TrEMBL record:
Boundaries of every Rab-GAP TBC domain copy: 103-291
Basic and acidic residues: bias regions: 1-10
Biased amino acid composition, Polar residues: 33-42
Lineage: Eukaryota, Metazoa, Spiralia, Lophotrochozoa, Mollusca
Name of the molecule in the record: TBC1 domain family member 10B
Keyword Nucleotide-binding on entry: no
Species in which this protein is naturally found: Mizuhopecten yessoensis (Japanese scallop)
């Protein structure tokens, strides 16, 4: 079995099930979400991100678009940065960060992500390795797990609707290659949606090296057996909730709503299963630039938006209602620009996060030490 199952897209599966049970059109086909009738037939509408329905579908009438002149200016600025990337990274990183927070132009997002995470360098210095991985058979256990998960990744996106389509085929290649690249960790289901998002923006080999960078540089230990790194970061998030939203912290503490119950999918899947799609991409722009602290900032905002409104906590009298609220986020409040601005307004900096991380690591070590001492004492009594 794979390590965890936060990669399953229940919302998309629910949408697909709902679609399957919907009344059929005259031609025997089910109307897809976001479709209209033309000459008596259902015509699918594909949004600009490639979705034909489900929770990720973006209605063109609702989306926020930059004026074309502003977009062109931003594109030119990014192209200028690409020409002297190392210089910008070493001497003007603050400006790069500022431009990532504004949003990377869609036409340059793929290239920018690769530059930001260093995968371009990885690929250039490992020529032929990806193809070599693909020629190997791989561990049958991991191959079976990957194949079982392929159809679950964004089934209402044009790349992944078909079982034998190029999207699922490339997704298999990337995930298989990673198990050979890192046989110790193998495959974790949460890697699949991350790899799928990368494939929406770039070819398979480029997506693979981006995945390597995310797993090894941004989220080390997240996809290892036991998920210890995720558990530690859950405790860190809880500690930061205590600082930023004391009333919510007390509520969660009283009901024993431990972080691993609600933040696992958020962090491990980098919010691909959580936010409106335009917001997912904006979060990824900042994540690739600033790293894991972005996950904490977004997580804190989601907790505050969900449980911070007056009267909300009283509507969540038990663990069940609280978890339901955290799992069914108010998407209308998670629009991309507002979400990013909320993360920047938080009164939490990187030093605060680091202190909390050290505190939680020491706390876990003390617990483990106490357990070891207890086990040792128990063994002594038995002998």
């Amino acid at each position: 079995m794979a390590n965890a199952d936060p990669g399953r897209d229940y919302s998309d599966e629910d949408a697909a099930m709902s679609q399957a049970s919907a009344p059929m059109e005259e031609n025997g086909a089910h109307p897809s979400p976001g479709s209209s009738k033309q000459n008596g037939n259902a015509m699918s509408h594909v949004d600009r991100y490639g979705f034909i329905g489900g929770s990720q579908y973006t209605d063109p009438d609702d989306e926020r678009r930059l004026p074309s002149d502003i977009l062109r200016k931003r594109e030119l600025k990014w192209l200028e940065m690409f020409e002297n990337w190392e210089k910008w990274m070493s001497k003007r990183f603050k400006k790069i960060k500022e431009r990532c927070r504004k949003g990377i132009p869609p036409s340059l997002r793929s290239r920018a992500w690769q530059y930001l995470c260093g995968s371009k360098f990885l690929m250039e210095n490992n020529k032929g390795r990806f193809e070599n991985y693909l020629q190997q058979s791989g561990d049958p256990k991991w191959m079976d797990d990957i194949k079982k998960d392929l159809h679950r990744q964004f089934p209402l996106h044009v790349m992944f609707t078909s079982k034998d389509g190029y999207g699922q085929e490339d997704l298999f290649k990337i995930l298989k290659a990673y198990t050979i690249h890192n046989p110790k960790d193998g495959y974790c289901q949460a890697q699949a949606p991350i790899a799928a998002v990368l494939l929406m923006h770039m070819p398979a080999e480029q997506a693979f090296w981006c995945l390597v960078s995310i797993c090894e540089k941004y989220l080390p230990g997240y996809f290892s057996p036991g998920l210890e790194a995720v558990q530690v970061d859950g405790d860190v998030l809880f500690g930061l909730v205590k600082r930023t939203s004391p009333a919510i912290y007390k509520h969660l503490k009283k009901q024993d709503v431990i972080p691993i119950l609600y933040m696992t999918e958020w962090f491990m899947c980098v919010f691909t299963r959580t936010l409106p799609w335009s917001s997912v991409l904006r979060v990824w722009d900042v994540f690739f630039c600033e790293g894991v602290k972005v996950l904490f900032r977004v997580g804190l905002v989601l907790v505050r938006i969900t449980l911070g409104e007056p009267g909300t906590l009283s509507k969540c009298p038990s663990l069940y209602e609280t978890l339901e609220a955290l799992r069914r986020l108010p998407l209308q409040l998670l629009e991309e620009e507002g979400l990013i601005q909320e993360t920047l307004r938080l009164n939490i900096n990187e030093r605060d996060m680091e202190k909390e991380h050290q505190k939680q690591v020491q706390r876990r070590r003390a617990k483990e030490k106490a357990k070891d001492a207890s086990r040792s004492k128990s063994k002594t009594r038995k002998t």
